[in-house]
Amino acid sequence: MEAPRILVVDDELVIRESLAGWLRRDGYQVDTLESGELAIEALKTSSFDVILLDIQMDGISGMEVLAHVKEEYPDIDVIMITAFGSVPSAVQAMKSHAFDYLLKPFDPDELGVLIKKLMDHRAQRKENIYLKETFEEQARFESMIGQSGPMQEIFTLIRDIKDSDATVLITGETGSGKGLAAKAIHSNSRLRDGPFVSVNCGAIPPHIMESELFGHKKGAFTDAKENRKGRLELACGGTLFLDEIGEISMRMQIDLLQVLEDRIFYKVGGTQPLTADFRVIAATNADLVRAIRDRTFREDLYYRLNVITLTMPPLRDRKEDIPLLADHFLEKFTREVNRGVERISRDAMDELMLYEWPGNVRELSNAVERAVVVCKTRTITPHDLPIGTSLEEELKQRYFSLSDIEKNHIGTILGETGWNISKAAAVLGIDRSTLYNKIKRYELVSPKAKD
Questions:
Q1: Fewer CB within 10 Å: C terminus or N terminus of the chain?
Q2: 1.10.8.60, 3.40.190.10, 3.40.50.1440, 3.40.50.2000: CATH of 316-398
Q3: In the predicted model, what is the mean pLDDT of the chain?
């Protein structure tokens, strides 16, 4: 492993030579420079792990060099060199993210201990980065993000079925990521190099669905001015994703069932059979079992589609994924709209964690996007979120306040003890005077007094 590289910057020759000699003796690569101007120029072409930097220099000061380093080269650690009388300046440098400071005159042993401490710190930082990257790798699968148990199970299932061409039915609430799961299944299958053709069954009017899926021959109907490929033909060699499958008509259900059973189809107005050489993934937010009972969805088609089932969990059941998702969306939207928003405050993240997210991941994405646009500082606060007021009102409706709980509890105990103040106070674990004060505050009245 290459020895760490250290740059010593000081306008006194004897100090540069002394520090360089000691550091080289300990096995470090060392360069020396006599001014802040030269240091800034050297950083443009050379890389360093550590800079030993004098605070007091003519021209560009050590503090100015420190600010430049932390702005342009944040991975370089800086130790400030200072005389005893400039300790306050060194403390200020620490506040500006210097690692530490070294007092003149130097003790070689003290220098060795400080550099060893810094190298241990750098090694720990690298280990933390590695662990963070490993964690993020485990929490990401294709375009999906999730460290929670339910999402890790989804990732495992997608990996398990990568060698299968079996039909998959993805269920889950609106906005829970069914489309992302479908793309991940395709990307991990043997058909990954083929097309991924998506059909939103709920967005295509029933009277043109047949032509959209199967295509048509020229002259097959009034508006058929030319031959046209349908989604089934376009999907050949890849994956056909039928989103919101529960929305298709009974007639189209019959036609689709026929395709799945015979693996052939015909264009509208055509007589030449085409091979259905594609994998089918269907998705729905509807309860298809109930739809079967209501006779709006065919049971035989359901079983044809439901060979492998994948259920996307709602966001409220995997809340530990919210910080990961929120940070992902923050990075995405700040980049898209070129805004300098850097973080989400703790209070804002608390609100994101408390909210129930009926629109799931899609609603969270929209909330963060809106916050990035309206945020006036570098930090998103609860005020920037579109959920703050509604969340507060929702919680007020669903839960009692602490004072309401205390009032009800005291009233219950007083009732159980027949309004015997001594007994009630003993049960509540408070003295009689405290209990009297609470009775007065909450305007509690005994049944006898009412009579």
A1: N
A2: 1.10.8.60
A3: 88
